[in-house]
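Quick illustration, no need to memorize.
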Amino acid sequence: MNIWRDERVVMTLDAGGTNFVFSAMKSGEEVVEPIRKPSNADNLDLCLQTIVDGFQEVSNKLSEKPVAISFAFPGPADYRNGIIGDLPNLPAFRGGVALGPMLREKFNIPVFINNDGDLFVYGEALGGVLPEVNNKLVQAGSPKRYKNLIGVTLGTGFGGGLVHNGELLIGDNSIATEVWLTSSRIYPERFAEEGISTRAIQREFLSRAKSEYPKDLMPKDVYDVAMDQTNPDNAAALESFKTFGKCLGDSLANLLTITDGIAVIGGGLTGAHDLYMPAALEEMNGKCYTSNGDSLPRLVQKVYNIDNEDEFAEFAANHSTDIKIPGTDKTIKYDPNPRLAVCSSELGASKAIGIGAYAFALKNL
């Protein structure tokens, strides 16, 4: 499937707790000016009418009939059947709301709803980092190709998704890859999101800072302190991002143990990757221990930060050697150095989610 050559139109929605943004895509690109509306999150009837009105306004702008509606919506949800559960940031949704079936009745076209983490990684797998990495490996003369991608989003929460060989892993209950609930070896008594989120950076910084700060300060504020060497709380800010990176590296190590592929990071906190990525790499390429105290690598594979050109060059280098096939005079290529890569999203989470939503609809029509 080549989404960039597909002429079909799919209507999309970026659903936030405060605003809904409606659009439409064709050949992997937006074809209308996005329409923004308040979510009316505390009034179910008004919220649902807003969604219908938004898609109707998009449809009115199109010169051709859309073939589907596809978008990300918060969970928990029975995404396969388009039923939304009880939502923390959209309090009007309680007891199960058949959003997908409602939109199918209104517009008489298929409707696909998914988790934003799933659509983020799907967009990156089909139109972002995965094809880009494989193209760069071809240009570098490397025989290595990657088919598996784990994607995580860093922001208010910690989300994720997994693509294996072009297929999005959704799960039997539509809640696969709920990475936020995985465990943490940095803070064993907490789940992963408590160390990998906006509130984690706020908490870690405020617990170390000497000066008084508002409790609602944002990670960007902490980043600015970290970049100011004259600030008396510079060390506290740097340490908060280091701890964040260790927690992220711990979760990614667990995920990569299962997926054995590339990891892409998106979301609002990626702008601080220069502060958290070194600790994340150190954790992924670090050690774990037996009960006797003996150490072994945390991962079988070595992980490279391919945002760094020098690390990408090492990642892409051909380490293959010729080994003999026993009992014959033939040889076969063998690469003794398994390796993985982690990088930041160049598309950005919002665009990747849009591409993922578009591609998911086309694949399932």
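Residues 234-259 form the longest helix (26 residues).
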